[in-house]
Amino acid sequence: MAEVSKDSYQAINWNHIEDELDKATWEKLTQQFWLDTRIPISNDLRTWRGNMSPEERELMNLVFGGLTTLDTLQSQDGIASLRKDAVNQKEEAVLNNIQFMESVHAKSYSSIFETLNEKATIDEIFDWADTNQYLQYKANRINDIYQNGSALEKKVASVFLETFLFYSGFYTPLYFLGHNRMLNVAEIIKLIIRDESVHGTYIGYKFQLGFKKLSEEEQTKLKEWMYDLLFELYSNEEQYTHELYDGVGWTEEVLTFLRYNANKALMNLGQEAMFPDGPEDVNSVVMNGISTSTANHDFFSGVGNGYLLGQVEAMDNDDYDI
Ligand code: MN3
Ligand code: MN3
């Protein structure tokens, strides 16, 4: 074999795999590829106009405004910052896939807004998202870690964002799905949750590889930082949840769901749970919503193509089966 010079530009070789999980994740993610334009959101218009109170419509709009901010952060800054620490070229390729899907997620909410709302209302939603103090706090806190954190800190931030912070928003469409309302909108949310499940598991796995290489002292320090960050984000999330959900009276059940998902985020990172809340504590209507099998699309045939993710399999839809 010819000697490869140090300044040669290395072609990616998928016939030489450093880590089987990169290849398995690539295959899983490409199998479950989807686009917002394939979901008939307008089929929900009748329910939106006839069966939703103004308060419920506003809640839905605001949570989707918040989710737009967070998926924008992932697509613009999050994945780009993680890619700098990729340990091989296939990991970079997987992150490229993830980054594009984050753009699809962010765009999906606009498709929902466009179908359901007038332009003036849409502008109001974006004004709200760009100025809401609790939403801005979490977006900026996470982005600060993306810009200035270590490779492992950035992975923690990403998993906390995707496996924990998104769920104050996901609660609303899952609740309505559990009550048989806004089913096509919920379909989009379930597709997003299915993607996030793989992202959280994969990035959590990459975190664990790096974490294992730290000294015991470094591990203890990083753990402390991690739990402090989670607690700080949870405190902010409590206020965000009060602001969104006090009006409809769901605040406490949303907080239970958040604590349950915070534990899932820690599990993705190979860490101990922080809260006592388990799946049995979450509103069963929401659990039913999340475990309802996807209905409209034949491209779900790839879902059952499971692969082994070691011990860290987390936030799979199956977890929500009761
Ligand atoms: Mn996303
Ligand atoms: Mn993601």
Structure at a glance:
The protein is mainly α and 322 residues long. It contains 12 helices and no strands. It has helices at residues 20-31, 45-50, 54-83, 89-116, 119-131, 133-148, 151-165, 167-178, 183-212, 216-245, 251-268, 284-291.
Instruction: Provide the domain count.
Output: 1
Largest sheet data? none
Poorly predicted segments: 295-322
What number is the mean pLDDT?
A: 90
Bound molecules: manganese (III) ion
Overall CATH class: Mainly Alpha
Report the β-strand fraction as a percent range: under 5%
Number of strands: 0
Question: What is the CATH fold-level name?
Answer: Ribonucleotide Reductase, subunit A
Compute the CA-based radius of gyration: 20 Å
What order do the helices and strands follow? HHHHHHHHHHHH
The number of helical segments is 12
Percent of residues in helices? 55-70%
Q: Specify the structural class.
A: mainly alpha
CATH architecture: Orthogonal Bundle
Q: Sum up the overall morphology in one term.
A: globular
Note the main attributes of this structure.
Ribonucleotide Reductase, subunit A, 322 residues, 12 helices, disordered C terminus, mainly alpha
